[in-house]
Every structure is written in C-alpha cells, then in structure tokens.
Automatic annotation (TrEMBL):
Any one GO molecular-function label of the UniProt entry: metal ion binding
Alphabetized InterPro entries for the sequence: FTP1, Galactose-bd-like_sf
Coiled-coil intervals: none
SUPFAM superfamilies for this protein: Galactose-binding domain-like
Keyword tags: Calcium, Disulfide bond, Metal-binding
The organism of origin for this protein: Elysia crispata
Protein name, as recorded: Fucolectin tachylectin-4 pentraxin-1 domain-containing protein
Domain of life: Eukaryota
Pfam families per UniProt: F5_F8_type_C_2 (PF22633)
Fucolectin tachylectin-4 pentraxin-1 domain boundaries: 159-310
C-alpha cells in the first residue's frame, strides 16, 4: 500500500485533494474534490493562476460558483500570473445549452489568435476541454460569445509534474556522516523543506565539495513534452550556490540538438524557467550543472518539470496505458482520452470508455 498522500502502481503520484484529504490509492480520485491549485484527471494538472481584468471579483472564475449578474457581458479577459505556452484549458458553464458558444483567444506579446474550435471535447453537459497549444508564452486569455454570460469556472493547465519520482542521478553526493547524505532522488521526492538544516538535508540533493564538474540529472522512461521548470533552492542557507545554473534538455532522437537555459544571476528561493519558444521536441533527460558561484556545487531541493507525457496518437493516460476510443480511430486528448471527433460508436463518457 502507498503512504498517505501517494497513489499509483508504484506509489509515484502525489495526491492533490481539497483539505489534504486522502485520494484513492489506485486512480488518485478525490471524493473531496481537487485542491484549488490542481484539477483534471486525478487532480494531477497544475492550475495556472490568473487575474480577471476589469471590475469583476478575482475569485469569479476560480470559486466554482455562479452568483453574478452578467446579462450584458460579451467577453472577459484574464491575465496569467506567469506567461506560459498554452496546452489545454477547461471551461465550466451553468447552462449546458451555451457551452459550445464559448470561444477562446489569446495574446502572446506577438499576436492575437483564436483557439481552434474543432479541438474541443465535452467532459459532461456543462464542462468542455479545449486543446490550444501555442509556441510562445501567452500573457492573457479572452473568452467571448453568448456563453460568457453563463461562465462558472476557467482552468488553464500549467501541465503536470513529470519529474516526480523519476530516476535521478548526480556526479557525487555530499556525505557528512552515514545519516547525512544528500541523495539525487531527494530533488524529485515532492517535498519542499523549511528553513531548518534538518529539513533541508532530508529533502535536498547536494554534490560533494571536492567535485570538479558537478551535475544532477533526471531521466524519463517515456519521452515528455515540457512547458516550464521550477527549481526550489535551499531554505536554511547558501542560496547563492544555485544562481546562474545551467539547465540542458536532451531530445529523444538526434534529429534535434540539446537546448541549454542559463539561470538568473539573482539569488532566489525559487527559480522559474519558461522556454520561449517552447521546446519543440520530446525530452528524455534534463541535466543541471553548477552556476557561477566560487563554490562548484549543484544543490537542489526540488525540481518541478511541468508538461505532459508524449504518447502515441492512439494512447492516453499518466503512463500512456490506455487506448483512445474515438470515431474513425482518430487521436484523443492525452490528459483524459477526450475525443474532439466524438466517441467511437457504442462508447460514451469523458474518456469514451463507457460502452
């Protein structure tokens, strides 16, 4: 059995239920609903924060309530807290008749574009997912059409943490005594330390002091598509060691060249890296090497890599373990098996699995 807060065949996925309630140990479902920062299948998808432009309440599209009079409203724009490339969005309305009349467009500091109306799939009578991948980070999203009057909730996917519990390695490890070893896997264990040394040594990776070419890396058994990275620094001391880190992503084939991103020169508790344009190839490995501090060290307390697994066109699921059931054997959404073309004859439901 998995420890509290974890689920899956190898207990490799983290529960994200409202009120820290336990999730189903098999499929991760939450009887209490998802924590407000997460949504989607098994509550595994990070919900990008945003601000509703204008005079509307900031909680209007995030509190799952429909208590405003918006009879004359024809569009609403939200500004993302952090510009990221879009992947998919979810819209919930109060009136099922008007679900398909909600249109979505976006601004990416270069141009204003519409999301394709053909790339949508209904989750239920009042909920719709929209696939809208963009090459560059998006700063704002606009919803328009008659259905805006009936809007209840908007979810913008920031991806799921594909690095969690994956195979991590490092060139060496700091070992003060048998109890105090800063292992590579600590950086993908899903835990962020507090400001005590005891907490940091139990959940941070750290290369050895005498290592001349330190590095840390995580590898994926199946290629992943990456949207952004978040690196959590130590909380107890020594944060300057991570500044100007070097982060390199390696493609699944030689058809593409590895891409390297250099971290900020500022000393930060949390570093965010959003590639622009987005990484155009599936990734098999991410490697982080030391920054430009006088101490040659790689110290990481958590590495979040948000994105999605790269499934074959007829597969979906957290491990691509399920088969799409779309009409004419067309592809489905990787995150939930939804079919823009509709379910194959004899199938219904969010993932077209109900026969």
């Amino acid at each position: 059995l998995c420890y509290h807060g974890w689920f899956g065949p190898d207990c490799q996925y983290q529960c994200h239920c409202a009120g820290s309630a336990p999730c189903d140990k098999h499929d991760g479902s939450c009887s209490s609903g998802c924590h407000q920062d997460w949504f989607g299948p098994a509550c595994q998808y990070a919900r990008m924060g945003f601000t509703v432009n204008g005079t509307f309440s900031s909680s209007w599209l995030t509190d799952n309530k429909d208590n405003l009079n918006r009879e004359n409203l024809r569009s609403v724009t939200v500004t993302l807290d952090t510009p990221i490339p879009l992947t998919w969005l979810r819209v919930v309305v109060s009136d099922a008749v008007h679900l398909s009349t909600v249109k979505i467009s976006y601004w990416n500091q270069r141009t204003y574009k519409d999301c394709p109306e053909s790339n949508t799939a209904k989750i239920d009578r009042v909920t719709m997912d929209i696939s809208c991948p963009t090459e560059y980070p998006v700063t704002s999203v606009t919803l328009s059409g008659r259905g805006v009057v009936f809007l209840c909730s908007l979810y913008i996917s920031a991806g799921r943490n594909v690095a969690l519990k994956q195979r991590a390695e490092q060139s060496s490890w700091l070992s003060i005594d048998l109890r105090d070893r800063w292992w590579a896997e600590y950086a993908v264990d899903g835990r962020i330390p507090n400001d005590t040394h005891e907490s940091n040594r139990l959940t941070c990776s750290h290369t050895a002091l005498q290592d001349k070419s330190p590095w840390w890396q995580v590898s994926f058994p199946q290629p992943v598509e990456i949207t952004r990275f978040i690196l959590e620094n130590r909380r107890d001391c020594c944060q300057e060691r991570l500044k100007k880190f070097s982060l390199t992503v390696y493609p699944v084939t030689d058809s593409y060249k590895p891409i390297t991103h250099r971290g900020s020169d500022e000393v930060k508790t949390t570093y965010s890296v959003v590639p622009s344009p987005r990484i155009s190839f599936p990734v098999t490995q991410v490697k982080i090497t030391e920054g430009l501090s006088r101490e040659r060290l790689v110290v990481l307390c958590e590495v979040f890599i948000f994105g999605e697994i790269n499934c074959l066109s007829n597969r979906f699921g957290l491990r691509c373990e399920r088969e799409c059931n779309c009409v004419n054997q067309t592809s489905c959404f990787v995150h939930n098996g939804g079919c823009p073309s509709g379910c194959a004859p004899g199938y219904t439901g969010e993932d077209c699995s109900e026969g």
